Protein: 3D domain-containing protein
Organism: Salibacterium lacus
Amino acid sequence: MASIGATLFASIALMSAYMSDITETDVMIRQAAEVVVAESEESRPPAPDSEVSAEVATTRVLGTFEATAYTAACASGCTGITATGVDVRNTTQHEGRTVVAVDPAVIALGTEIVVELADGREIEAVAADTGGAIDGRRVDVLMADYDDAIDFGRQNVTVRTINE
């Protein structure tokens, strides 16, 4: 029993010596780190008087889609009201963005997107409508009149989200 006590005592003494070494080393490292932090804070320019919070735009590329164009007027079945209730009888815009029809299984209704056309132009749009022929990776861009829709034609575009 005495040898167990002696072994235990020796182990505790060894651990204490080891811990004191770690503690001294930790203190030296911490002091060195505090000096580096203090020096870097001195070289940092002063903070502005007031903070300005800017919304950070985040985007996610959804990929290549086939794009076509449509108008709010048609021979039958069109009301000029989108699937989300936006009245487009006299405009192609909703809250400053062009209305597009999408497949809501691919792009959620209400999503703000950028449609990059084949010629490099970009249309900031909002997914506010659906359509019977809009299935999968397709977007249908709302145009002011029939001639604009015909001129737009059918093209491959890149679609990315805005502030997702």
Notes: Confidence is low (pLDDT under 50) at residues 6-54. DSSP finds two helices and seven strands in the chain.
